[in-house]
Amino acid sequence: MAKKNNLVGGAKAKISLILIAGMAAGWGISGYTVVLQNSVRKQNAMVEKAEEFIPDKLYIRAANQYKEALKAYSTKNNLTYERRLLDIYAEGGMTEEYADLVDDRIEAKTALVDEYLSRAETLIEEESIKRAIRYLQQGIEIYGDSQLVDLCESVKYQYNTNGTDYQEGKLPSENWIIPMWNGEKWGYTGKNGRTNIEFEYDDATRFSGDYAVVKIDGVYTLIDQNGYWNAVDKNGLDQVIDIAGDKIIGVKDGKYGIYSNMFERLNEEDYEDAHLNDNGMVVVKKDGKWAVLDGNMKNVTDFELTDVAVNSRGQVFSGKYAVVADGNGYFLIDQKGKACYEKRFPNAKGYEGGYYAVSDNDGNWGFADEAGENVIPCQYVDAYSFSNQTAAVQYAGKWGYINQYGNMVINAEYSEALPFLNGKAFAYDDQGNIEVLELKYFELF
């Protein structure tokens, strides 16, 4: 019986402890609530005092009182009082103080749309464009506001123009060492037209990574960016079409073959045409039909495609996607050769890395997305697919660039303009000379 009494007594003690703890917690919550309410009352009193200075335009005194109220107390009203402090700064012409507070609110991600707009507009006037773009992009990410988008789009495509004296060149790969023709020989220049590798070659490919293929004294060789020879063709190739990664396309007796960049044949197949791609895929033509091969030269698709759309760099794939055709029209496929949608277009341009150019039945050009939906109506005489958030389009007889909203962001003033690659693009002026356009703020895209 004693043991039973002990158990009962122990249970009662535990219950008592739980009740006491609950009461203590309740007292704690009540105490905390009282403290918060007192903080709110005290902060409100300071703010009311600050407002008394406004009718007499004593803005500095009002602002200092608001700052003290915000520093002394952290309540649910702080963000509201910060906004009121911004109004006081604006009314009092305290531009530096206004900017500093907005910057703090942007950093804390508590700024509102109008704050992002006003701060960005000021930064643009001060020619702090990069900072303005960063602020606008943050605001767009939070709010998706169309005013922020419009302002950002209006400044982000500013560009420099690097003129050259050359009228023929091949598009470079990512390093922008450019194969150029001086009228007699091929050589390589930088984006500004200055010679990087001397003009002494009868033929030249773009660089892929560290290497390019050139023809000198009737023989193809692999050169590095210093112009040093790294391999020599012993196959007697008539032409080298392209290089990508560790592969090249060589032509002999009118037949296309796939070789390593050491000029070793990778398979025994002869093709009617071929395209390499930076993602390692190979696209080849035989008996009038095209097939996709993987990096190991194994078939991803059968020879069943009626056409492939080549982009500005002579490639079919850009990243994950390629534009191809069957008997019903043009469509997008992935690296597994799978169609991305059922729809077909009458014509299409090669994939560059964004919306891709498609035509309607009247031959007008617009743009489609990865689902095959028209995102920009077919309204242009000609167009290239999107890359770097721009697309080159022909409008009123001239070429310029639009953004993803269909707005002209680089004026249509070129006889021809090609897609951007890593923030730079080829365009031809009215004299046919190559200009290299360079987006100033591309690193913020």
Describe, in short, the structure shown.
With 445 residues, the chain is of the alpha+beta class. The chain has helices spanning 2-51, 59-72, 78-91, 95-107, 113-125, 129-143, 146-155, and strands spanning 159-163, 168-169, 178-181, 186-189, 195-201, 203-204, 212-216, 219-223, 229-232, 239-244, 247-252, 255-260, 273-276, 282-286, 289-293, 307-308, 317-318, 321-326, 329-333, 347-348, 356-359, 365-368, 374-380, 382-383, 391-395, 398-402, 408-414, 416-417, 424-428, 434-439.
Characterise this structure.
The strands form eight sheets. The chain has a four-stranded antiparallel sheet, with no helix packed on it. A four-stranded antiparallel sheet has the order 2-3-4-5, with no helix packed on it. Helix 1 runs antiparallel to helix 2 and helix 5 runs parallel beside helix 7. Helices cover 29% and strands 30% of the residues. The chain is of the alpha+beta class and 445 residues long. Strand 11 and strand 12 form a beta hairpin. The N and C termini lie far apart (82 Å).
